[in-house]
Design goal:
The complex is a heterodimer of chains A (66) and B (149). With 66 residues, chain A is α+β, with helices and mostly antiparallel strands. Chain A contains one helix and three strands, in the order βββα. Chain A is globular. Chain B is α+β, with helices and mostly antiparallel strands and 149 residues long. Chain B contains three helices and six strands, in the order βαβββββαα. Chain B is flat, with a radius of gyration of 18 Å. The chains are: A alpha+beta (66), B alpha+beta (149). The interface between A and B is medium-sized, with 30 and 29 residues.
Chain lengths: 66, 149
């Protein structure tokens, strides 16, 4: 099974989002690396976007008010 | 200088073998990569010649093992701009969660296209291509006297 791991080079963490970098890696389903910010069981872009929105307070506004 | 466009619906796995990539699923959509023969003008669509076929556009990470994207906030209208260093000059604006997903999807596909173009010895640089087209193109005006009767 293939998963997608997100590695965030810069994470806003409550601050106003200006620019973040997200590295997406295809990894095994259960990676053992601690450097990964999140591991998604699905490789679909919808799941990646949902995870980014969930992790970012700025991206949490979905109703076109970004 | 190459602009690549994607047309879905073709089926060929040879490119993945050439690229030493690992297709995950045989059911992935494929992208037909074409390069322009010449840029006649900005008003007339370019003619394209086929370069090959790229696998993996409908689902993320079918082709590449990793991809870095940058999300930049738009200053004026809000929203985000998604770009990736794997495809210089390519950007997509998005205004919501679904748009973000589509942009991420497109980033993977565009990175695959850029990788394919580079593997074929073609430069993938949309900014440079736009500049070249700007310099060589001429505006097209409608001339009724030259219309065939």
């Amino acid at each position: 099974m293939t998963a997608i791991a997100l590695v965030l080079a810069s994470w806003p963490d409550g601050e106003d989002l200006r620019r973040i970098e997200v590295e997406m890696r295809r990894v095994a389903a259960k990676p053992e690396s601690d450097e990964l910010s999140a591991v998604l069981s699905s490789a679909l872009a919808e799941d990646i976007a949902a995870e980014l929105v969930r992790r970012s307070p700025t991206l949490s506004v979905l109703d076109g008010s970004w | 200088m190459v602009t690549v466009v994607a047309v879905r619906g073709f089926l060929d796995e040879q490119w993945a073998l050439d690229m030493d990539c690992r297709p995950i699923s045989r059911h992935a959509d494929l992208t037909f990569v074409r390069a322009p023969i010449r840029a006649q003008s900005r008003c007339v669509p370019m003619a394209y010649r086929p370069l090959g076929i790229v696998r993996g556009t409908s689902h993320t990470a079918r082709v590449l093992d990793s991809l870095t994207v940058t999300l930049t906030r738009r200053r004026v209208t809000g929203g985000l701009i998604v770009a990736t260093p794997a495809a210089p000059g390519w950007k997509r604006a998005c205004d919501g969660g679904l748009d973000l997903a589509a942009a991420i999807e497109a980033a993977w596909a565009e990175a695959a296209i850029a990788r394919y173009a580079r593997a074929r010895g073609l430069e993938y640089d949309l900014v440079a291509h736009d500049r070249a087209a700007e310099a060589t193109s001429r505006p097209v005006y409608f001339d009724p006297d030259r219309v065939a009767s």
